[in-house]
Amino acid sequence: MRVLDVLPHEARSFSTRERNPYMLFLEVVETLETSDGLADSSSVASSKHDRLAARGRSRKAILTSAILAPGRVTLRAGAKTAVGVKNVVNRSITKGKAGVGGVIDGQRERRTKHVQRREAALAQENDPFSITETPVEKTARMQQAAPGEAGQAGGRSNTPDSGATDAPEARSEAWRCRMDRIRTQSAHAANEPGWQLAAVIVKADDDLRQEMFCMHLIKSFRNAFSRAGLEDLANGLRPYSIQATTSSAGFIEALVDATSIAETKRSMLKQHNAASLEACYRARFSAEQSVVSFETAQRNAMYSVAAYAVVQYILQLKDRHNGNILIDSSGRMVHIDFAFMLGWAPGGITFEKPAFKLTKDMVDVWGGRGSPLWDAFVSSFVDGLQAIQQHHELIMRDVEVIAACGARFPFLTRTTLPRMRILKLLRHRFKLWKSPQQLRRYALTLIDEAYDNFWTHMYGKFQLLTNGIPP
After folding, report:
1. Of 184, 271, 359, 385, which shows the fewest CB atoms inside 10 Å?
2. Distance from the Cα of residue 34 to its chain's centroid
3. What is the reported pTM?
4. Model confidence over 235-260: pLDDT tens digits?
5. Which H/E stretch holds residue 60?
């Protein structure tokens, strides 16, 4: 994929508790790739030659325009172009001064806004009558109240359009409208047949190297499923691009067709509808503009839950609340945010005791326990665990290299476990000494322990009370 242009005027910011990431939109074009995932050498060479030629032409054009600028004295043949170069330098200095002035003005404006926010916060603290409902309390009240009570307390009319701007359908429609608008305004869309609009989330003061490594491991899981002929499980995983530019910054590919379960449930609550996952799936995938049918979305959800269950068990992924699980346009439940893995849990305390997250709410999407898709889920999980056992070297090799090279990942530095103990526990979870029949019985035990687990519910309630994330 080659970047054609960056669109800073289309960027949008996300305000969080500690950081301020923002989404950046890019104009990109698909490039030819070989079966190994590498660009063809001839195409790389030709594109490099074109870029160098364009760069040479642009420099020549700049120098020519500087020499022949309006109001200049015509130089005789053979004379030096020192005055023209001087003109370029003067222009650069002028632009540099303007840029510095803009930066200073921006700093003053941010400082003024910070002082205003601080004064408003102090005034609210000193005012005994300024007690308002926090977003966490509002979410908890909407989650626990009946539909009629929620409508009376929230003061919203019970109409289909209420909260429509937060619905997944509205978001996908907004993305298509944005793409069409930028396509008409773009100077590259007409000349590039593979033109696309992409979005990345830029994050600062955040180390993305561990998440980048975890995404590499998820791709290894996908390769192992494909080698074993489990294409449905392989398609259940959705890897996305993560690039750490420094130890404290980077960018993440935005899944523009996906919405978190938490946001989906909030949208349903605003419309005074049932906030179960089954109801969310029926509302989203029964509509005419949905990409897949409801039955296809059920199967995709089942295979994605089974595939990510294997990943969660082997890598010990934690912090699996509904804000870190997305529902994409095909119905898959995609996991994001891999800051806690391989023994490292939020706060250093493992609230999430089961091997993976499997709530009754998730299982009800494909018919509940005892349905035909439930039997397919059990078989898929067992087959996936056996495939990972056969191709365990894909995972062990990379983790051993990271542990041996002295990487400062949180799962290696913030736990009390030594590195050799982490590797030993990881190898132990592959159950290499178990036969296929024994591994199947063990997998059934993991499913029974994870299904509607008490600690999973407790962690969901904890996230609801502390962060306002619906369970």
Report:
1. 184
2. 27
3. 0.72
4. 999 999 999 998 889 999 999 889 99
5. helix 41-67
